Amino acid sequence: MSNDPAAKFDPSRAGEYQQQSRIALAGYDACHELSACMLAAALGSGQAARVLVVGAGGGGQEIVTAGALEPAWQFVAVDPSDPMMELAVAQIEAKGLADRTSFHLGYVDDLPAHDRFDAATLIGVLHHLPGDAAKRSILAAIASRLQPGAPLILAGNRFAYRSQPLLLAAWGQRWRMHGATPAEIEAKLGKILQGADPPHSEEAVDALLQGAGFEPPTRFFSSLFWGAWIARRKAN
């Protein structure tokens, strides 16, 4: 596995990201819609807010969805992959949300340490980071830039893939449903087994979040390996 997860998202992978993600994650759009709804419920609908969107590349779907729901929200989009960020910029501009979005090509740690946000999202990122140390680091960096009590939406895979053979087989069938050949399915299974390192359980997700300074999370979405949670930054 590369020490730089952003290197995986070259122009060819970035170009297919939105279509491929909707196959790999059954309920891709529903997850983003519910994430926006959870944030609006936590913050109060109609309220102004600054939202940190980490891993916004690939279309900025978090911003497109939440921006349509809450016209008073402003966004800071962060992603280390240039090709993926280009896709996000194009999509956000096409939806008329560029005037409410600032783009940062890089990492959360590059943002000013004193900057504070009312909410944050980390969707589809954590399982690309190798090892628990990297996972804790990004969650702690986000927590340090949130107001006390501010909500974080975390979404991503949350099982060791080989530990759930039935889910892995169903994931392969999902690709078959969308026209993949047996050889293509085998290649995709090989890529996910070698190229990602998700937390090994829901309890591991809970421990990572609480260790980074968040309250115990509440899960609100699940799809095979995927889960989505909301957790608030601890008040102290």
UniProtKB/TrEMBL annotation:
Keyword hit for Cytoplasm: no
InterPro entries: Methyltransf_25, SAM-dependent_MTases_sf
Signal sequence interval, chain numbering: none
One BP annotation, GO: methylation
Coiled-coil ranges per UniProt: none
GO molecular function, one term: methyltransferase activity
Name the record gives this protein: Class I SAM-dependent methyltransferase
Limits of the Methyltransferase domain: 51-149
Keywords: Methyltransferase, Transferase
Domain of life: Bacteria
Organism encoding this protein: Phreatobacter stygius
